[in-house]
Amino acid sequence: MTEGLLQYLENFLTDQRKNRIEAILANRTRRVTLVLEDLVDPHNASACLRSAEACGIQDVHIVENRHNFQVKTGVSMGSARWLTIRRYRSELLGAADASPMATLPILDSLAESNDATTRCLSDLREKGYRIYATSPHENSIELPELDPSVPAAIVFGSEKDGISGTARQMADQCLRIPMYGFTESYNISVSAAITLYDVTMRMRNSTYNWHLSDKEKEELRLLWVRQSLRRSEFLEKQFRREQNASTHTMDD
Length: 252
Hints:
By secondary structure, the protein is of the alpha/beta class. It contains nine helices and eight strands. It has an eight-stranded parallel β-sheet, with helices on both faces. The model has no long low-confidence stretch (mean pLDDT 88).
């Protein structure tokens, strides 16, 4: 049924769009993932999502302990539509549907906990990720030293306070971008863009298997085709009606 639905929906896409989806799937990865912890500024949050998507990263993990994660559509340029976003939200923030993140599509699942950071990083470690918490302090390794042989989850903290104590304690290593001026650090969205670009480029130039599995590609292909169509829900209903009519005809 899923394969038939995909073929049906693809009839309403141009060849150029279908080829674009295939090209992006071929360059998508889950070997590197982004964690955003308690970002305050919607402009920064949106820019981070845009950078992750542009670098070919599929998964973004949103941690909401003290602040609701908000996006600014004009900055994100719709990038959230193509990402797999998982939220880890503190129960202290109240009902989940009060969050602006509730409007974001594509596998937006929710894991509520009193300590959202612990839940998020524990889940990532169980999946085999090495946790890197970004911090400008001297005990951090520099970006070029990050080991691309192990899947990496890179944590960025809030604009004012940086990563939380929990993130620092749970991290396998702290990570910083080399700085050559008096300024201690870049803006968070700039830091995320530099870091993700550097890590994913080194990953792509390595011999490690960083590609999505065939199953993962199939799942995303259908999701992205749906996102590419303005009337996907209507078309799916039409497909199912035609399928049911065909079944009844065969029965007769």
